[in-house]
Amino acid sequence: MSDTNDFSPTQGLDESQLNMGMEQTGGADQALLRTLARRRPPVVPPEATLRDTLYQISQRQEDAAVIADPATGLPLGLVTLREMLHVISFEGGGLDDPVAAHMIGAPLTIAADSPAHRAKVLMTRRGAKHLLLIEGDGRLFGLVGQADLLGLRAGGAEALIESIGTARDLPAMTLAADQVRKRGAELFRSGMGVEALCQWVSGLHDLIAMRVIEIMEDEVDLPAVPWCWLVFGSEGRLEQTFATDQDNGLIFVPPEPAATESLRAAFLPFAQAVNQALHHCGFERCRGNIMAGNPSWCLSEGEWRRRFADWLAEPDPQAVLNGAIFFDFRPLYGSFEAADRLRAWLLAQTGSEVRFLHHLAQQAVNVPPPVGWAGQFSYDRNRDFPHTIDLKLQGARLFVDPARVWALKHGVWATNTAERLRAVGACLGRGSADTAVEIEAFHLIQRFRINQQLQTTDLDAVNRVDPDDLNELHRLMLKEAFKQAKKMQARLRQQFLS
C-alpha cells in the first residue's frame, strides 16, 4: 500500500466498522463566512413599503431583507418574511407602511472574514436566526441564516444550549458541562463522525466557557478597555475530545503603554477566577500553567506581538516546541478585534521566516510514527503503561504539527487541522482525494483516542492504547494511518529540511 490513494481501511466493513473508519464531514466551521454567503440578500431603503419589500423577497426566494442607507450602503436593520406576515395579519400593519417602521434595528453583525464557527456560536448564544456580514468599513457584504450554519444544534443539543444559557451559578454550569459530556459520549457510541463530533463538543464547550466568563465578569469591575479571552491547543483548533485541559490566555488593549502593568493587575484576579470555575466544570487546569490567570499569558496586544516576534526571530528548538500551541490561538469572548489584528499580523510574518519554519518542521518530524520498518508497532517504553502507544503525542500530533507548519507557511487563517490540510492542499495543488485520505487517517486516530477516553478515568492513560487490545482489522487500520503520517513527514522534510 505504497500509494496514497491505496489507504481505504473501510472497504468491506459492516455498518458498525464503517462508522469506525469513515468520518462524516463537518469541517466547514473554520471556512470564512464570505464563502458561505452565496447569495446577496434583498436590500431596500428605509422608505420602501412592506409591499415592495415582500415583492423583492418573493422574487429572490429569500426569507429576509436588509434595510440600508442608500447613500452610504451601511445596514440599518433587518426584516424577515415571517415578521412582516405577522405584522400584516395580526398587528394591523398595512402594505404601504414604510419597512423601517417594522424592521429590527441594530441587527446582529459579524465581519465577513470571520470563521463560520464564530458565527455559529454567536447565533446560538443570542438566539438569532440571521447574521449580517459586514466589510471592514461597515458596508454590507451579505447575510447568513441558520440553514447556512447547520450543525451546532445537531445531536439533541437544543436542551443543552438552553441549560447552559440559563445557568446562573457554578453548580448549574458544572451540571450542564456533565450533561454535554454524557450526550457527546452517546453520539460517539452511536457512530457520529469524529470531525462532526469534535465540532459539536467544541461548540458547546465554547458556550460553557463563555457563560462561565459572563458569570465571573458580573462579579467584578473590569477595566474599560478592549479585551478578549483566547484559547489555544485543541480548543483553539476545535478538536476537543473528552479528556481536555485548559489552554487559554487574555489579550487587552491599553490606552497607552504605561498603563499595561496596572491593567494586567486588574485582569489577573478575574482570569484566575475563570480558570478556577472552568476547573470545577471539568476542564482540568493546564499542567504547564498555560492559562489566562498566569501573568505570562495575560498580555497586552503589543506584548503578544512581541512574544510571537521573539519566537519567530530566535527559534530555539525548546521554545518552538513549548510555544507551538500558541500558534493555534482563537478568540472566544470579548472584543475580537485585537485578536484578529494579531492573527493577521502573525500570518503576514510567518510565511517568510525560513529559520522558524525549519525549526517547526524539525519538531514535527522528530516524533516518528510508532511503526517499525517491518510493519510492527513500536513503543515508548513507558514504565507505568508498557506496550502502549500514546495516541496524542505519537498519533494525533503527527497530523496536527505538519498541518500547522503548512498553514503558517501559506498564510492559512484556519486553526483546525482538517481545515488546514484542505486549505494547504489547495495551495500546493494536491488532489482533493489525497488530502481526504490524510484527514481520514487523522480522524481514525482521533476515534481510537476518544474510545479509550471513554473507557478510563486515569488521566495518564486516557490517550494510551495497547494494540493487543484491538482486533486484527483495527490494528491494520491504525498501521495504515501511521503510514499516512510517515508520508506527510517525508513531504515536510523535502520542503523545509532538505
UniProtKB/TrEMBL annotation:
- Species of origin reads Candidatus Thiodictyon syntrophicum
Any idea which GO molecular function terms this record carries?
[protein-PII] uridylyltransferase activity
> Do you know which InterPro entries this protein is assigned to?
CBS_dom, CBS_dom_sf, DUF294_put_nucleoTrafse_sb-bd, GlnD_Uridyltrans_N
User: What is the protein name given in its UniProt record?
Assistant: Signal transduction protein
Keyword Ubl conjugation on entry: no
Q: Which domain of life is it from?
A: Bacteria
Tell me which stretches of the chain form a coiled coil: none
| Keywords attached to this entry | CBS domain
Pfam families according to UniProt: CBS, DUF294, DUF294_C
Give the lineage.
Bacteria, Pseudomonadati, Pseudomonadota, Gammaproteobacteria, Chromatiales
Domain CBS spans what residues? 37-95, 103-160
